[in-house]
Amino acid sequence: RVLQVYGMKRSCIVDSASLCLFASQLTSGIVVNIGFVLTFIVPVVGGRVVRGAVRTLRLGGAALTQFYNELLRRLGVELPSSSSVPPITAARNLKERSCETWPTSLGAHLGHSPFALSRLVSRGDAPNLDLLMGSQIISIGWERFLPAEILFDPSAVGMEDHGIHQAVLHAVDAVAADKSYASTPGLCAQLLERVVLSGGTSKIPRLHERLQAELKDLVASKGRAPVQVKVHPSIEGDHTTWFGASVLAGTSTFAEHWCVHVPTEIQDGDNTDAQADDNDVDVDDDGDDGEYHDDGEDDEFDEDNDEDGEEDEDVNSEEGEDDDEEEGEEDGEDHGVHDVVDSI
Q1: 7: left (phi over 0), alpha (psi -120 to 50) or beta
Q2: Is the pLDDT of residue 192 over 60?
Q3: Is the Cβ–Cβ distance between 293 and 287 less than 8 Å?
Q4: Can you list the domains of the chain with their CATH numbers?
Q5: Cβ atoms of residues 163 and 210 within 8 Å
Q6: Which residues, listed in sequence order, are joined to residue 232 by a DSSP beta bridge?
Q7: Would you tell me how many other CB atoms lie within 10 Å of the CB of residue 268?
């Protein structure tokens, strides 16, 4: 019906996590999508999401903005606001302009919890940043590193979730425990080499460096064999899936294996309800895993972007080729992502 209503000649429905990997020229890896409300840790192997290994954190860009707004208020920082610009919007804009990630544990660097505010503000070594907000200049020191710290230590502000580095390792272990991948040697090491950030909040400077350092330390603390850990920075922030879609669409085998062509009768406008029903594409998108439904709202680290984010643009369909399955068996072709991944 999408093809009919919008007059498209063809359509392709792909899981957004796979598209994030395609944007980095990868087909397997762990996607860390930091959205507006939730953060999804999504393992992908050969272009297919390992649903049983997906991890969800109830932590996203909105929580960081709210924390930053309250933090600045407690420190006596008055943000310019008006009837058209509420305080939370001003706090979000300031977060986008000032927040950074300390490359290692900030608590270890400071010698005390970074959330001990009285000790934090009394330090004389703050890396101050002066910003012009409206007609006033606001000077921000260590506090601008605290929102990113929450991603690695949510318990410091009363949240029960794991840090994103811990969730990544849990997801990797869940893939290893999946019987479907038990015979794949070196899969865990391969996934840890291909951690990809996406979402608006992933654009916080140096976040990928910190996640990489935390993952290395966590793996070592578990007494595991040394592995290469590599975290790929977000390429386009909350537009990563769009970028990945353009990469996928540019492959030589894309049209042959992925496009759903509109029958001639529909293109000519000679269609009935019966014909439309016959030509519907059945996409399995019931999201019955209970966690990852591929519809999480994405945070915008760019104040000009829509808060709904990119995730709403992509419909999960890693198994959406059911209607073509019999035809694929007859002509010897499998209509799945893994048919085109080699060309990326």
Answers
A1: left
A2: yes
A3: yes
A4: 2-59+162-343 (3.30.420.40), 61-157 (3.90.640.10)
A5: no
A6: 196
A7: 9
